[in-house]
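step=encode ok
step=design start
structure_in=
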């Protein structure tokens, strides 16, 4: 099952999602020629790929869809064709066995300072986790009861000194991990 959400569909219900690979700010092909190999290797065991915007090329969406189920939102650097295809904000309801989790996804905007708080306030009903991007800085912290998760950028170091992506593991709770990409 491939999942691509357009701007008319703001909520998606999924079941049995245990591992999510999370990307943002890939800026392809501007900042790199392709998605780093360490990430495509991680796709092999993913139940879902989520991209929090700034693809910069609509072809990247098609590439991601070939690997796994995919959900994405548009970012501020995305072209009109991507903005026409993807929403700015999405809610994902995940049901695993008898547990339910709610994940919000948006790109974010404005200066890096205070970004996580602005993104949290962008969602009226606070989900269990909010995935966002924009700053290129990895962030994996709880604010109140919400895990705020920014995977950073796997290809660009404009605002961060390292390249990163992330994974979310869902069992009794949602746990985030930021993975640094070696540039050797």
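sequence_out=
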């Amino acid at each position: 099952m491939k999942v691509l959400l357009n701007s008319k569909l703001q909520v998606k219900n999924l079941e049995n999602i245990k591992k999510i690979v999370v990307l943002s700010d890939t800026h392809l092909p501007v900042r790199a020629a392709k998605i780093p190999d360490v990430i495509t290797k991680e796709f092999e065991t993913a139940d879902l790929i989520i991209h929090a915007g700034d693809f910069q090329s609509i072809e990247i969406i098609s590439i991601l869809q070939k690997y796994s189920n995919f959900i994405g939102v548009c970012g501020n650097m995305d072209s009109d064709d991507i903005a026409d295809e993807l929403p700015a904000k999405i809610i994902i309801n995940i049901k695993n066995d008898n547990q339910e989790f709610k994940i919000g996804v948006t790109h974010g905007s404005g200066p890096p300072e205070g970004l996580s708080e602005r993104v949290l306030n962008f969602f009226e009903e606070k989900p269990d986790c909010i995935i966002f991007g924009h700053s290129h800085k990895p962030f994996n912290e709880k604010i109140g009861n919400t895990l705020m998760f920014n995977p950073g950028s796997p290809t660009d170091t404009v605002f961060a000194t390292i390249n990163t992506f992330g994974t979310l593991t869902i069992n009794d709770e949602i746990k985030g991990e930021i993975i640094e990409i070696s540039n050797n």
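step=design ok
step=annotate ok -> The chain has one domain: 11-181.
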